[in-house]
Write a structure and sequence with these properties.
Largest sheet: 5 strands, mixed
Oligomer: single chain
Subcellular location: Cytoplasm
Pfam families: TsaD
InterPro entries: ATPase_NBD, Gcp-like_dom, KAE1/TsaD, Peptidase_M22_CS, TsaD
Strand order of the largest sheet: 3-2-1-4-5
Number of domains: 2
CATH superfamily of the largest domain: ATPase, nucleotide binding domain
EC number: 2.3.1.234
Number of helices: 10
Structural class: alpha/beta
Keywords: Acyltransferase, Cytoplasm, Iron, Metal-binding, Transferase, tRNA processing
């Protein structure tokens, strides 16, 4: 089978459509919603409205760029969850209507599994089984990947996701939204050992990031009271210290899982996998522990429909279809 699929992603604040044929991505169009910048975070209602405005032009561009007519499609895929309910509803409703009008089968895709399967868009591809550190604004997980469709969450955050910790820490420092990328940029020229922050040690492979946000808040208040321009005078070092702490928290559990399971195939996925500090640290650990490391291209780290299309490709081959009764699940699990 050489299926040609249209995939739609609308879980948060990116409206995206992709066309894949025989496992090869032909197009991947992403419309980012800049409106959230003025609010310092994603506003769900505004995200839903923007998806409604963007979805038809984005799908049209994806088909046009791929040079694929609607009549050539074999199925339509969409993100079922996890994500924002209103945002998911837009993509789900459009996909069901589009498929119904063309009498095409539907494929519902797990957003987090799709992040992991983004590794199969380009070479090199990881060998099974492998461990994937899946890190984003909403999730932090260590996933054991046995096959394209067989995954098990070994550990996850018990409170905040690491992406949220990056963004909230940046906000405490007065950085504009989204703060995570800016914090990463400033950290590149800072001293990561200048200001120590606590690394929370959870049982097993689980994580916790709520404590570090409180620690940073108290740190900023205390030092700003003693020195008026403390944050600005030490911004790069503060950013580097925060980033080092968050990355070490992640790596500590990843090393433990890799050692205990005897797995040397290691991957990262999700929006935070675009972080330059995390990428560099992963390469350092690869040399130290003899890992084979897989890091997706930047365009496939953040939310995009190409990863939804890749997941849908393997589901199509497995005959894993859904019905017109499918509905979004904001809290869908891997």
């Amino acid at each position: 089978m050489n299926p040609t699929l249209l995939a739609i992603e609308s879980s948060c604040d990116e409206t995206s459509a992709s066309v894949i044929q025989n496992g090869q991505v032909l197009s991947n169009i992403v419309a980012t919603q800049a409106i959230h910048e003025q609010y310092g975070g994603v506003v769900p209602e505004l995200a839903s409205r923007a998806h409604q405005q963007n979805i038809i032009p984005v799908v049209s561009q994806a088909l046009q760029k791929a040079n694929i007519a609607k009549s050539q499609l074999d199925a339509v895929a969409f993100t079922r969850g996890p994500g924002l309910l209103g945002a998911l509803l837009v993509g789900c409703s459009f996909a069901k209507s589009f498929a119904l009008g063309l009498n095409l089968p539907l494929i519902e895709v797990n957003h987090m599994q799709a992040h992991i399967l983004a590794h199969f868009i380009d070479d090199p591809k990881p060998n099974f089984p492998f461990l994937c550190l899946t890190v984003s604004g909403g999730h932090t997980q260590i996933v054991l990947v046995r096959s394209h469709l067989d995954m098990e969450v070994l550990g996850q955050t018990t409170d905040d996701a690491v992406g949220e910790a990056f963004d909230k820490s940046a906000k405490l420092l007065g950085l504009p939204y989204p703060g995570g990328p800016m914090l990463d940029k400033l950290a590149a020229t800072g001293d990561p050992n200048r200001f120590p922050f606590p690394i929370v040690n959870m049982d097993g492979y689980d994580f916790s990031f709520s404590g570090i946000k409180t620690s940073i808040l108290n740190f900023v208040k205390k030092n700003s009271a003693a020195e008026a321009d403390f944050v600005q005078n030490h911004l790069n070092d503060i950013c580097a210290s925060i980033q080092w702490t968050l990355i070490q928290t992640l790596m500590k559990k990843l090393v433990l899982a890799a050692k205990e399971l005897g797995i040397k195939e290691i991957a990262i996925a999700g929006g935070v996998s675009a972080n330059s500090g995390l990428r560099a640290t992963l390469q350092e650990y690869a040399q130290k522990h003899g890992w084979n490391v897989y890091i997706p291209a930047f365009e496939y780290c953040t939310d995009n429909a190409a990863m939804i299309a890749m997941a849908a490709h393997y589901q199509y081959l497995a005959g894993d279809f859904t019905t017109q009764y499918a509905s979004p699940d904001p809290r869908l699990k891997v």
